[in-house]
Amino acid sequence: MYRTSYVSRMASVNAQRWPDPTSTLPLLWRTKERPSRGSGLTIDAIVGAAVAIADADGLDAVTMRSVAERLGVGAMSLYTHVPGKGELHALMLDHVFADALDGLATQGTWRDRLGSIARLDRDRYLGHPWLLELPVARPAFGPNITAKYERDLTALEGTGLTAAELNAAVMTLTSFVYGAARFQSRARADERTGRTEAQFWQAHEPYLHLVLDIERFPNARKVAEEAGRDAGADADHDFSFEFGLEQFLSGLEGLIDRRGTA
User: Fold this and answer.
1) What's the CA gap between 164 and 76, in Å, rounded?
2) For the chain, what are the domain ranges?
3) Highest-confidence segment of 92-106, 193-207, 219-233
4) Does domain 104-196+232-261 have CATH number 1.10.357.10?
5) What is the mean pLDDT of the chain?
6) What is the mean pLDDT of residues 21-50?
7) Helix 163-192 / helix 143-154 crossing angle, nearest 10 deg
8) Environment class of residue 99 by beta-carbon count within 10 Å: exposed (0-12), middle (13-18) or buried (19+)?
9) How far apart (Å, rounded) are the C-alpha atoms in residues 161 and 230?
10) What is d(CA 128, CA 150) in angstroms, rounded to the nearest whole number?
C-alpha cells in the first residue's frame, strides 16, 4: 500500500507544471516586491519560513496558513506578496540554490569542478529531500537557478564542447544527480521508519534460494547474496553514485580528448 501510494504520488508530482513565468519571474527577481505595511513581512521572510517548515516536516506541511503561523501574521497577508503555493514552491527552489556562486566552477580541472558540483548538488537534495517532490522539468530561471546554470557551464569552459554539447552535458549530469539522490533519499526515509537495508535483505534472504535459481539468475543471485552481507543503504548508494559519476566523467573526457586531437 505504501509503495503504491508513493508511486502514485510521484507520478502526480511529475505531471505537475510550474506556474506561468509571468507570475513567478517578477517574484524571483524581486522586481515587483510590494512594501510591507508595518508587519515587516517580505518575500525573503516568507520563503525562509516555508523552507524551514519543509526541512522539518516535508513539503505537504507547507501551506499559506502554516507559513503565516510561523511568521505570526494572518494567512491572507501572505497573498499580498506571494499569490499561491506554486509560486511559493518556485521561490523555495531558487532559495536553496543560493550557494551557486561558490567558486567551484574555477577550481581544479574540469573533472574536479564537475565532480565537486555533482556532490554538492546531491548533498543539497539529501539535505532538502522535499526538493525531490517538486516538478522536475523547466523551473523558472530565478537568480540562483540561473547562477547555478552559469556555474555548471563555466566548469566546462575550455573543453572545446559546442554550446549544444555543453548544455547536454550539464543536463545529463543534473539528471544523474537527481536520480541518484532520489533513490538514496527514499532509502533513508525507509530507514527512519524502521526498515533498514539490513532488515530488507534479512526479510528476503530465506526466499533468495527459492526465487533466484542459480542457473537462471546467476548474477542476480550473487549480487543479492553480497548485498545481504554488506547491507548499508548510504554506503551502497554512495558507491553507486561515485561509480556512475566516474563513468560519466570518463565518457565526457573521451569526447573532449577526441575534440582536442581532431
Assistant:
1) 45
2) 2-95, 104-196+232-261
3) 92-106
4) yes
5) 86
6) 87
7) 120
8) middle
9) 41
10) 22
* pLDDT given for residue 2 in this prediction: 39
**Percent of the chain residues topping a pLDDT of 90:** 61
Residue type, 144: N
Q: Which three cell numbers stand for residue 181?
A: 539522490
The phi, psi pair for 173, rounded to 5°, reads: -65, -40
| Amino acid identity for residue 9 in this structure | R
Compute the distance between CA of residue 82 and CA of residue 48 in angstroms, rounded to an integer: 13
Residue 87: predicted pLDDT: 96
What's at 221, amino acid-wise?
R
Express each pLDDT in 111-124 by its tens digit. Answer: 999 999 999 999 99
Determine contact, residues 241/142, Cβ cutoff 8 Å. Answer: no
Q: What's the per-residue H, E or C state across the chain? A: CHHHHHHHHHHHHHHCCCCCHHHHHHHHCCCCCCCCCCCCCCHHHHHHHHHHHHHHHCHHHCCHHHHHHHHCCCHHHHCCCCCCHHHHHHHHHHHCCCCCCCCHHHCCCHHHHHHHHHHHHHHHHHHCHHHHHCCCCCCCCCHHHHHHHHHHHHCCCCCCCCHHHHHHHHHHHHHHHHHHHHHHHHHHHHHHCCCCHHHHHHHHHHHHHHHCCCCCCHHHHHHHHHHHHCCCHHHHHHHHHHHHHHHHHHHHHHHHHHHHHC
CATH number of the domain located at residue range(s) 2-95 in this protein: 1.10.10.60
